[in-house]
Amino acid sequence: MKKYLFSLFILFISYSVQAHNPDISSTMLVEKEDNKWILQIRSALTGFDQVIKANYPAYESAEEFQALVLQHLKDNIQIDFNDGAKVTLENGGIKLGHETIAVFEVLGVPKSIQSVRVKNTSFSTINRNQNTLVILKKGFKKNRFTLNNKNQHTMNFKVADANFVPVDGSVSLPADVHSNYPYKGIALSFLGLFFMAFIYIKFIR
After folding, report:
1. Comparing C-alpha atoms, which of 140, 138, 141 is closest to residue 174?
2. Cα–Cα dist 95/67, whole Å
3. Beta-carbon contacts of residue 136 (< 8 Å; ≥ 6 apart)
């Protein structure tokens, strides 16, 4: 029995490590009310730490680290609409944690969208990085795509039938996401850690 429980203990440890894999990150462009848009970038804290250490001098405080992360994201993310209408990322904020989340207001998004180009090279210095891209617009289909080394962390879309269609024919996958999507991983990780602690204290120690 103890051997079986110990196996479960190891399984949850593995899940927790995978949930905070620095190779995996996401980019979410989300339409809110009144044509207001936000951009959410999430990754393991270790992922952000790797890219900051690879691109900047050593930081000395959490505040300096947060400022470097926000600047790094602004310098490495480009979003264009309708073949050239560039947007700006403003009022950035960051929530540090095992899964760290950065949020920006996106200014300059046109009301009528015919095409969009998204480029995010923020994590390009991480080997085998995979960045999940999701664009959420009211009334549009919810799909997810991948930015990685193969596509130079860039994707171009055209709008057709209330859908963002990749110009290069990239495969889209259904995205079961909503506004609090970035927090699911955090909640599941805490549940996993709680279960691990219970199993260890009750049966293994």
Report:
1. 141
2. 12
3. 28, 29, 30, 31, 142, 177
Q: pTM value?
A: 0.75
- Give, for all 205 residues of the chain, the pLDDT tens digit: 544 444 444 444 434 543 468 899 999 999 999 889 999 999 999 999 999 999 998 899 999 999 999 999 999 999 999 988 889 999 999 999 989 999 999 999 999 999 999 999 999 999 889 999 999 999 999 999 999 999 999 999 999 999 999 997 665 555 554 444 444 444 444 445 554 455 455 555 5
CA nearest to 163, candidates 149, 182, 181, 145: 145
How many Cα atoms are found within 13 Å in the side-chain-facing hemisphere of 28?
A: 24
Helix and strand totals (H; E) in the chain: 4, 12
Owner of token pair 């609090």:
180
Side by side, the strands of the sheet bearing 77-81 are: 85-86, 77-81, 115-120, 154-159, 164-166
Between CA 95 and CA 78 the distance in angstroms is 22
Burial 11-45 (b: 16+ CB within 10 A, else e): ebeebbeebbebbbbbbbbbbeeeeebbbbbbbbb
Closest CA to 119 of 160, 163, 87: 87
Instruction: Calculate the alpha carbon distances from 183 to 40, 75, 84, 127, 139 in Å.
Output: 11, 25, 33, 25, 23
